[in-house]
Specification:
single chain; seven-stranded mixed sheet; 297 residues; alpha/beta
Length: 297
């Protein structure tokens, strides 16, 4: 997520648009409050203070606090507009995930990888929870010293890219196509030693953009992709949107197609794939992957 530098133009466009949108939201919110407050008191039995309080969103002590841009968003705007280092994902790739966040946020968003785009993801999910899973402890310290509000866990992977073929073969076994809590899974691909909160939260979105996977000795994303699919299937109800980046590489391509399933894929844009995986607990007997329509004919 942080290994490549690209032109800063695309991301600046995103946050310039966000700035304009936030300004319009604040403008119309103030206009509505002003309009409501100007209503004659003779039309109601409430005092002026009660009328004003009635039109404030819950949890807002004052109108100024409700219409002021959140610090997290202002930090993101300043950071990306002034930074020469931009996220690895392109404008079009980011837009795929943003469209889903626009519908679901505030929500629970799990991101494998802490990088230059982390502040953006947390800001796009403003009011929700965004958790970053990162393999590099020193990098976590670097990023969170600058942005202490980002929530991240340090984790350790025990896989290597050079063993991906063996893991793919293992993943097709019955143990790996059984849906259960990853901690109880008998599949060696399942991540079992992460913090309890990782397993207990019902994630609405999962982004797999880590761990490192561009050389043979790197941990690779085999287990991250498999576990993302298992978390989605094992939720009590509903569905989870899962995104996998760098699908131009063999591991990300093959493991996402196999364990997140081609039948669940909604879109591919550039190097990003989007899958929507339903709960398997909510419907007994659902196959690990959807049955191919062509095979049934």
């Amino acid at each position: 997520m942080r290994t490549k530098s690209q032109s800063s133009v695309n991301l600046k466009v995103i946050f310039t648009c966000c700035s304009i949108l936030i300004f319009l939201i604040i403008f119309f919110a103030r206009s509505n409050i002003s309009s409501s407050s100007s209503k004659p008191l003779s039309e109601t039995n409430l005092s002026r203070e009660e009328v004003e309080n009635q039109h404030k969103p819950k949890g807002c002590p004052t109108t100024q606090q409700c219409t002021k841009m959140p610090i997290s968003l202002s930090d993101a705007l300043v950071h990306y507009v002034t930074s020469n280092v931009t996220p690895q994902q392109t404008f079009d790739e980011v837009s795929v995930s943003k469209r889903v966040l626009d519908k679901k946020s505030p929500c629970n968003f799990l991101v494998f990888g802490l990088g230059h785009d982390s502040l953006m993801w947390a800001s796009l999910n403003h009011g929700g929870r965004t958790l970053f899973i990162e393999e590099d402890k020193a990098w976590i310290e670097t990023v969170t010293n600058k942005f202490p509000n980002l929530e991240s866990y340090h984790v350790v992977y025990d896989t290597k890219v050079k063993n991906s073929d063996k893991l793919m073969e293992l993943g097709r076994s019955e143990e790996c196509t059984s849906v259960t809590d990853p901690r109880n899974s008998k599949c060696d691909l399942a991540l079992k030693d992460f913090p309890a909160d990782f397993y207990q939260t019902k994630w609405d979105l999962i982004m797999v953009d880590a761990p490192t996977g561009y050389h043979e000795e790197a941990p690779g994303r085999m287990s991250a992709i498999y576990t993302a699919g298992l978390l989605a299937r094992n939720r009590e109800d509903g569905e989870t949107d899962v995104f996998v980046h760098d699908v131009n590489r063999p591991v990300e391509d093959e493991f996402s197609a196999t364990f997140l399933c081609k039948g669940y894929m909604r879109e591919q844009n550039g190097r990003l794939r989007h899958f929507t995986i339903p709960s398997h607990r909510a419907r007994a007997g659902r196959p690990f992957c959807p049955v191919d329509v062509d095979r049934r004919r």
